[in-house]
Amino acid sequence: MRLLKLVPDTTNIQFLKWRNVAIIISIILTVASITLTATRGLNFGVDFAGGQMIQATFTEDAEAPVVQLREDIAGLGIEGASIQRFGDENQVSIRMRVTEGADDDPEIANQVSTQVTQMMQANYEGVRIDSVDSVSGKVSDELFRAGALALGLAMVAISLYIWLRFEWQFGVGALFALFHDVALTFGFFALTQLEFNLNIVAALLTIIGYSLNDTIVVYDRIRENLRKYRKMEIVPLLDLSVNETLARTVMTSLTMVFALVVLIWVGPDLLFGFTAAMLLGIFIGTYSSVYMAAPILIWLKVGPDTFVPEEASGGQKIHKEGYGR
Amino acid sequence: MNDFPAWKVWLLTALLVVGVLLAIPSLLNEEQRSYIPDFLPQPTINLGLDLSGGVHILLEAQTEEFEEQRLQTMADRIEDAMNDQDPRIEIGDISRSGGRITFTVRDEAQLDDAMERVRAETQPVGFTGQRDFSVENEDSLRVVVTPTQAGTDEAINNAVATATEVVRTRIDELGTREPTIIRQGAERIVVQVPGLDSPESLMSLLGRTASLEFRMVNYEADPNMALACQAPIGSAALPYADQDEGVGCVIVQRRVMVSGDQLVNAQQGFDQRTGEVTVNLTFDGPGGRAFGRVTQENVGRPFAIILDGEVLSAPNINEPILGGNAQITGSFSVQSANELAIALRSGRLPVELAVIEDRTVGAEIGEEGVRLGGLAGLIATVTVMTFMFVTYGRFGIYSNIALALNLFLILAIMAMLDATLTLPGIAGFVLTVGAAVDANVLINERIREEQRRGRKVIDAIQTGYKEASRAIFDANITNFIGGALMFSFGSGPVRGFAVVLVVGIITSVFTAVTITRMMVSVWIKNKRPKELVV
Fold first, then answer.
1. In terms of CA atoms, which chain B residue is nearest residue A244?
2. Beta-carbon separation of A133 and B359 below 8 A
3. Is the distance from CB of A3 to CB of B533 less than 8 angstroms?
4. What distance in Å separates the CA atoms of residue B250 and residue B303, rounded to the nearest whole number?
5. How far A154 CA sits from the closest chain B CA (Å)?
6. What are the C-alpha distances in Å from A116 to residues A202, B58, B205?
7. Number of inter-chain CB pairs under 8 A, A vs B
8. Strands B353-361 and A195-196
9. Cα(A20)–Cα(A184) distance, rounded to whole angstroms?
10. SS3 of B333, please?
């Protein structure tokens, strides 16, 4: 049986030739993302901004009466509610910001959503309230802090681990690659104004994990080749390592992309932002492990001697038997 | 390849069979599960509220008000201690400001005695030797009573513990199935009730302090003061519960005749004469006797029924109320009377609770999540499996068997851990399908590579597994770190995702590395292939 081979055995692409161009593009994109996030801001969901979100389906109508609904809610004396269709034509989401002074009195916030759901049930036949979220400013601040903390800690812990398992240059490289991935994802959310909520933080952490996966597979091969081909120049050695792992990279990325496309296609609308972030993360993560994580090793002067002292002094013992055959 | 002697193969196979069997109850519905004999363990995975529908509420104790109240209670006790004991100690007005109580003693000779009496009212805190209030002398005749941090912390801790129990009783009374009530940190309580239709009634029930009091109305007070809601000394002006503003207040005596703490039962009922909805109360012995005595002495005079600081009604006492039973009316509906009865039965909340987060998910949307998520998982699995098969042939089949086993094992472990599956958790499952084969891809690609370098079949497989294991190990550890952090710092949906991720990392390394290797080694042992197509 002839098996499918996505990457021919003889593949030898000189990825690193484009490293200077790539790094300039990356810097531009990263700076643009940070600027965009800082100026335009993220569209925080109720998890992080507080307030109420009501999602409802008009089961008997083909289309949700958004205009009518807007008037009705304004009629209740609630200002600044944003009403949008999401998912199917007959589904709406209603967002209301935290009202002034609601931080001190959470009951007020709850009354607002109760008022709106009761009005909807009274005025519209066949309306189905799918979900009501009400988060006070206090809780949303905490959730935000916890999310930021988890993200920051994950990046530091992961870089430390790589430093311990490889060398400090690799830890620095991984950290830069991670920072790049996270910044670009933020930029994407600032650009599209897709809702940024707790699920997206989970997506970000998974992107970090995935990107790391890729980086580690490449790093592992670089380490191996540094020992195997002691005379080789660093740039061709990096190219060789990337090429040797390319089949795996393509294959794994493809299976992940399949899984995620399916999730976007049939999965619940609630998960759209989450899945979109992950899908983007796959591409950014793969790119960054080749064009951020690898070239940094050149600039940090990684060479065949980087690992040798360790080898001689008995460090890295666990994997010693794997080499030199 | 002697890594897998027969006993090891049997052991691993047995382990996998147990794993799959433990996963099966979670895939069946309730009716199908009833056919499983009872002696078998039947762990089932919990569905999160986003999948089963229901209400998640985060309650927070209003500690500022609680501390104010505690200070007021202490001030009252100080006043009583000065007046009721012999000899009486003359003091100036007790003032309560800046979180402390101050008063001045008129006669210097009584200062020490006064301080001693106040000290007698304080309580020790735990085994620390500290007391809950500190009593100090300031500016010759002034006494300052300040709550200590340890005392305040303990009082809040006790109040929240009691409140948690009260909340539990109230929700149990509602008859909902499988509610979860967990205390979180010092001041919070999480309530999760699956499949509840009307979160409003639940919230109004939980937000109610249910402090019920009967006090005599101060009928000698000036009616103008009642209109202006001002109270003479020794009385309190309380607003009506149900009436429009501007009708003024009811002036009641400060002393409480009977309070809700003395209730033994409360039931919703109907007035036999008028047909009005009522709440029927039964007092304990001392409460019933106190009620009887006061009503006997005050026939023809009004008393007030006060709930959470508002007057429900102020009827005249037509005849002495003896025997410990009473009935209260006050424009109730059957539902609201029932809620009040439940609240009264379960006791007073020692501290007011505010809803600071509330998330309600409809049952339909939950079912839709399960259906679409399941479908997505199925399509993803089939696609990835096809892909693995056409790429790696025999080794792809091994990977696919490992992948399927992996999914079963995740379910089994989650069911055994009593973990909760959420909507992002389903996404985690779908993602695991994509990521789990990564280990096999790494191994298979490596075997291809070693073959190209001219290694023989067995050697290529062995080297492939060994060399790939290093990257697999490192990659999974870093992912594990991310997952563990997500679990520790995340809440709700993020946690649900992290659980699947972390469990999935462990099981996927086991199935993708150990189990495929076992299958490969069994195949090699039986067939002794000369050629290898990977």
1. B449
2. yes
3. yes
4. 10
5. 5
6. 30, 21, 20
7. 231
8. unpaired
9. 19
10. coil
Strand order in the sheet with B325-328: B263-270, B277-283, B325-328
Q: Can you tell me the distance from the alpha carbon of B531 to that of B527, in angstroms, rounded to the nearest whole number?
A: 11
CB interface of A with B, residues 196-235, below 8 Å:
198-199, 201-202, 205-206, 208-210, 212-213, 216-217, 220-221, 224
pLDDT at A179: 92
* Candidates B200, B466, B475; nearest CB to A213: B475
Predicted ipTM?
A: 0.84
Question: Quick one: which of B528, B518, B526 has its CA closest to B399?
Answer: B518
- H-type alpha helices, B313-393: 334-345, 363-392
- Pull the structure tokens for residue B27: 């895939």
Low-confidence ranges of chain A (pLDDT < 50): 310-325
Q: Which two tokens stand for residue B473?
A: 């190990």
Q: Nearest CA to A29 among A237, A182, A250, A173?
A: A182
B441 and A255 in contact by Cβ < 8 A? yes
- 10-residue stretch averages of pLDDT, chain B, 534 residues long: 77 90 85 79 84 89 89 87 84 86 89 89 82 87 91 91 89 80 91 79 78 86 82 83 72 84 86 86 87 88 87 84 82 83 84 87 86 88 91 92 94 91 86 85 92 89 91 89 85 83 93 92 86 76
- Among candidates A128, A248, A274 on the partner chain, residue whose Cβ is nearest the Cβ of B442: A248
Q: Any CB–CB contact under 8 A between B59 and chain A?
A: no
Flag whether residue B473 sits within 8 Å of chain A, measured between CB atoms.
no
Give A228's strand partners: none
Query: Which residues in chain B are contacts of A165 at CB distance < 8 A?
Result: 474
Q: What is the Cα B319 distance to its own chain's centre? A: 46
Query: What are the start-end ranges of the H helices in chain A?
Result: 19-39, 46-49, 66-75, 106-123, 137-165, 168-192, 198-228, 234-244, 246-266, 272-291, 293-299, 308-313
Look up the pTM and report it: 0.79
Residue A228 CA to residue A324 CA, distance in Å, equals 7
Q: Do B380 and A254 touch (CB under 8 A)?
A: no
Strands A43-44 and A195-196: parallel
Go through chain B and tell me how many residues it has: 534
* HEC secondary structure over B128-194: CCCECEEEEEECCCEEEEEECHHHHHHHHHHHHHHHHHHHHHHHHHHCCCCCEEEEECCCEEEEEEE
CA distance A282 to B346: 54
Question: Which residue is listed with tokens 């529908």?
Answer: B53
Between chains, do A128 and B391 touch, taking CB under 8 Å as contact?
no
DSSP string for residues in B443-483 = HHHHHHHHHHTT--HHHHHHHHHHHHHHHHHHHHHHHHHHH
Calculate the CA B298 to chain-centre distance. Answer: 46
Residue B54 has φ and ψ, to the nearest 5°, of 145, -170
Q: Do the strands B100-104 and B142-147 form a parallel or antiparallel pair, or are they unpaired?
A: antiparallel
